[in-house]
Amino acid sequence: MSTIDSSRLLQMRSSILNQNQALQRAAGRGGVSGVGGGVGGVDGAAGTPDFGAAISNALQQVNAQQNRASDLSEAYERGDTHDIVSVMIERQKASLGFETTLQVRNKLLSAYRDIMNMPV
Length: 120
Known about the structure:
Blueprint: H1 6-26, H2 51-78, H3 84-116
Helix pairs in contact: 2-3
């Protein structure tokens, strides 16, 4: 078994960080100052949205769709509307949004578990 050359590891790390900065510049985000960057990859100066904001926005949209479907269902049950097609379409949209949210949550939990189980 060979020994680990720390200077080689530092050189590889530096190369990876340089490549990462070049990719971020190419993507229009600018370079990351320091190791690790900001919280969750947030670039506050450029105003790019972070992951938490994207997830929060998606959850709000799914919630709004669920509320629309509930309102239409209640209106149909009261007899305020007779358009069963629009009621069923809105309910299906709400169902798909919920299922998608559930699958994203499952994938995030799986990724979190995988990261936590990685050997250090």
